[in-house]
Amino acid sequence: MLRGNEWLPQSFIQNAGGDVIDADGKPVMDSPAAVKGIEAFVQPRRDNLWRVMTIPEMLAAFQAGAIGVMATSPPASPACVRRPASISV
Predict the structure, then answer these.
(1) C-alpha gyration radius of the chain
(2) Contact status, residue 36 vs residue 12, Cβ threshold 8 Å
(3) Whole-angstrom Cα distance, residue 8 to residue 14?
(4) Residues 27-86 pLDDT 10s
């Protein structure tokens, strides 16, 4: 079972024309297209454009306006599940 943030790198792989598994259920993450997708996924980190943060650090930074985007997935961050808004007028 995959844990954590598996969707984000998978989307990079698929956007590059690759896939994670083939129609027979065999892993194909070593295809040229999948490697190209993973290279695109890690490049922002190599360029120091993405900071590695824990989910609580990311939530606090996002809520404080210090970062504009959170890159994670629901299984990795149950605290990000949408809750009803409380609005007072």
Answers:
(1) 16
(2) no
(3) 10
(4) 998 999 999 999 999 998 899 888 888 888 988 999 999 988 887 766 555 555 555 555
Q: Say what the pTM is.
A: 0.62
Report the alpha-carbon distance of residue 13 to residue 63 in Å, rounded.
30
Produce one character per residue of 34-65: b if its CB has 16 or more CB atoms within 10 Å, e if not: bebbbeebeeeeeeeeeeebeeeebbeeeeee
The DSSP code sequence of 11-77 is HHHHHTT--SB-TTS-B-TTSHHHHHHHHHHHHHHHTT-S----HHHHHHHHHTTS-S-----GGG-
